[in-house]
Write a structure and sequence with these properties.
354 residues; alpha/beta; six-stranded parallel β-sheet; four-stranded parallel β-sheet; 12 strands
Length: 354
């Protein structure tokens, strides 16, 4: 498997970590080539040496034309599985590079896209898809629940206090502060405005934003100044650093995912798996049960969140049964299993019941 392992935590690195554990538990031998932990020279050398490894499958989980080119040059294209986690890099390439990429993808064992929207993206940029070797599958693997106590220990006392004292509790997250076509990818700016609007009718509301990396300090400070201007300092809390989020989703009333571009978001799938409501942008296909709002529309985001929270309060008042935790073992999962996946001619959307 070629791709990053935690840290840093992100959708791709978490997927690789969990999938490696799953395959090893099933008796497979898995080797991960992590570009984040190797020098460029050692990384490139290791890629060229994959031909000596006698691997049954080479799973490419990085957004790199050159990695695919090396695997192609050493004669391993027929064993290569290209997994696109919503890279969106084709618009930065010239025509020749796109054509070469198209040729190499068509020579690979299979191409896996984490969302059906990527088919249109590829075709719109001139990439011909190998129709009998393209699959659309989400990249969700259920988190190991036995890890929860250790993860909770990584949270600060302030985080625990915020979670316990704020109601309703909203959660959002991002791997860092980054932009796509000049727009805040993870919608941190929208989250701030949302809390200010919801506070008018929910004085004790809280939104915890899990930010793995403060990669743009200037923007981060601008957001904090806006938080102070709106008077929501006590209602908005940042959890920074490399920490897994899913234990908090078991306590949250709502997860917000206002991304302006996205793949099949692991956090959204985790939220639905643990019974947490989700309001997410319409930029891609979302986990079943998510409530969708129009991308970058603050008014629609507010409307959908208010409706979800209102329905949750009504359901709570009407319920006469004791609250029960979600039995994750009973959920109908279609696990993303790249070692045993079969080529499909039609799009396959993996969902689950809740």
């Amino acid at each position: 498997m070629i791709g990053p392992c935690p840290p840093p935590l992100g959708g791709v690195s978490v997927f690789i970590k969990r999938y490696k554990q799953k395959m090893e538990n099933a008796g497979h031998e898995v080797v991960v080539l992590d570009p984040c932990s190797l020098s460029k020279i050692r990384y490139c050398t290791s890629l060229f040496l994959t031909a000596r490894g006698n691997y049954d499958l080479i799973s490419i989980n990085v957004a790199s034309f050159y990695v695919l080119a090396i695997i192609f040059l050493v004669g391993l294209a027929s064993k290569a599985q290209v997994i696109d986690h919503n890279w969106r890099q084709l618009e930065r390439w010239n025509v020749l590079k796109v054509r070469l990429f198209s040729y190499m993808v068509n020579s690979s064992r299979e191409l896996i896209l984490v969302g059906s929207h990527l088919k249109a993206y590829y075709r719109g940029h001139g990439v011909k898809l190998p129709l009998n070797r393209v699959q659309v599958q989400n990249a969700f693997i259920h988190p190991p629940v036995e890890d929860e106590p250790k993860i909770l220990e990584t949270y600060s006392a302030d985080v625990h206090k915020f979670v316990e004292t704020r109601s309703p509790l909203l959660v959002a997250n991002g791997s860092g502060i980054t932009f796509y076509q000049g727009v805040d990818i993870y919608g941190l700016d929208m989250c701030v405005e949302l809390v200010a609007a919801l506070k008018k009718t929910n004085e004790n509301i809280g939104l915890l934003f899990a930010l793995a990396d403060i990669s743009d300090r200037e923007y981060y400070e601008d957001v904090n100044r806006r938080i102070d201007e709106l008077g929501i300092r006590d209602n908005f809390h940042f959890m920074t650093g490399q920490k897994e989020l899913w234990p908090l989703l078991k306590k949250a009333d709502l997860m917000v995912r206002p991304t302006c571009t996205d793949g099949y978001c692991t956090s959204v799938a985790e939220a639905r798996a643990f019974g947490c409501a989700v309001v997410a942008s319409d930029v891609c296909q979302r986990a079943r049960g998510s409530v969708i709002f129009a991308n970058r529309r603050n008014d629609d985001l507010l409307l959908k969140c208010a409706e979800v929270l209102s329905a949750a309060r009504q359901e709570s008042r009407e319920s006469v049964d004791e609250e029960q935790s979600v039995d994750v073992s009973a959920l109908d999962y279609r696990i993303f299993d790249c070692l045993i996946s079969q080529p499909l001619n039609d799009e396959t959307q993996f969902g689950y019941s809740n």
